[in-house]
Amino acid sequence: MRTTQTAIDPVRLPALRRRIVWTLFAVSALGSTGYIAAITAGTLAAANMSGGASFGGLPTATSTLGTAVAASLLAFIMLRVGRRRGLLLGIVAGTLGGAVALTGVLLASLPLLLAGSALAGSANGAAQLGRYVAADLFPPERRARTIGTVVWGATIGAVSGPNLVAPAGSAAESFGLPPLAGTYLLTVGFIGLAAVITFVFLRPEPYRLADSSAITTHSESEARVSLADMMRAPTVLVALVTLAAGQVVMVLIMTMTPLHLTDHGHGLQTVGIVLSAHTFGMFALSPISGRLTDRFGTPRIIAAGLSTLTVAALIAAGAPPDGGLLLTLALFLLGFGWNLGFVAGSSMLTTGLTLGERTRVQGVSDGVIWTTAAVASLASGLIVAGASYTALGLLAVGLLFVPAALLLTRRSGLAIGRAA
Questions:
Q1: Is the pLDDT of residue 234 over 90?
Q2: Residue 82 Ramachandran class (φ > 0 left, ψ -120 to 50 alpha, else beta)
Q3: Range(s) for CATH 1.20.1250.20 in the chain?
Q4: Is 142 exposed, middle or buried (0-12, 13-18, 19+ CB in 10 A)?
Q5: Terminus of the chain with fewer CB atoms < 10 Å: N or C?
Q6: Does residue 177 sit in helix, strand or coil?
Q7: Tens digits of per-residue pLDDT, 216-232?
Q8: What is the pLDDT of residues 105-129, one digit of tens each?
Q9: What DSSP string runs through 195-254?
Q10: How far is the C-alpha of 153 from the C-alpha of 170, rounded, in Å?
Q11: From the centroid of its chain, how far is CA 309?
């Protein structure tokens, strides 16, 4: 990565940085809306095409794996062509994926639907990397709240994406199209709009606007550190394990809760309330998580996130079959605990590394996060089928001991202050 920067008027820097952050917020909002609408419809489309529910989870799994691959690949590309072009490439690929999935729905082709779902995941991978792009613009004491702002944008997608499926289906039927084709038209439209906004407003190149504390003064050959060496750094290892463990625990419980509720006599209204509480906890409180992290330091907020996830998993495991209110609380805490760890862990990944090193590590980190999410979503059903929903919650508690132990044993290598 070239670190030489063309001089930018210091007076303009604050305004340019604000524009980049709010552009990334918009990309997160639009991209998540299109992506979540697609995976919501994907389950129904795959079940319709296969004649049963056995293949219903495949579009979500392929989208998640597409996100994982895209995150790693786009980080590699960004090092060579810059953040702006890398993000734009991922979002354009996601738009193309929506069009391929739409074709799959129109032709009733499951292979095309899955290929399009995987490509659509690249837009999600790009939008997720946007939080790191925003963090690079500011000094350490402001990075977490900036990450929180960008993640906050996904609240729009989490709320609106699933709720757009029905009206989009009605609109499609009025034009003689299959109902689910309307959802994928929305996917193409929303992600395509995110691509236009990236092209127009994500300028100048964000690397040129990066905070000076992130820019190395050494040559690229002198500053080159192996990925393995970077991964062994206390901050990187703790952040990576925290992010991956939080994702696994959240996905394990979240995936099976709707089925657990309906199997015990709860209606779709209860399912909707519980999942709404969960998504609210996941995204809506992101600015608070960011400010808490900047105020108290990443290790403390990671510990708070792990503690919150543990409480959530225990409540879920111990809730009686008719305990809709308890499960609503559990799923809210599950979302908020994930958010605390996600914002604080992402902020920790920006600590102690040069700009190029960060980009490499962040791509690998997001690749790991989304790969583990795909595995967890597939494994959760097997665990419940082979044991129980209670066992799933207790397993989640056990998994959280790994990042907690690592946080304690690596504590001496982690700064506890505000900028940690």
A1: no
A2: left
A3: 1-215, 222-420
A4: middle
A5: N
A6: coil
A7: 543 444 346 777 778 87
A8: 999 999 999 999 999 999 999 999 9
A9: HHHHHHHS-S-GGGG--GGG---S-HHHH---HHHHHTSHHHHHHHHHHHHHHHHHHHHH
A10: 27
A11: 17
Task: Name residue, tokens 């044993």.
Answer: 409
Q: What is the pLDDT of residue 219?
A: 40
Residue with tokens 């990187």: 236
Q: Cβ of 200: how many Cβ atoms within 10 Å? A: 9
pLDDT at 264 over 80: no
Map tokens 């524009």 to a residue.
19
Collapsing DSSP to helix, strand or coil, 1 comes out as coil
More reliable by pLDDT, 220 or 187 = 187
Q: Which fold has domain 1-215?
A: Growth Hormone; Chain: A; (1.20.1250)
Average pLDDT, stretch 171-196? 94
Single-letter code of the amino acid located at 193: L
Q: At 220, list the tokens.
A: 């690229």
CA–CA separation, 345 and 72 (whole Å)? 17
Q: For residue 371, how many C-alpha atoms fall within 13 Å in the half-sphere facing its CB?
A: 12
Q: Has domain 222-420 been given CATH number 1.20.1250.20?
A: yes
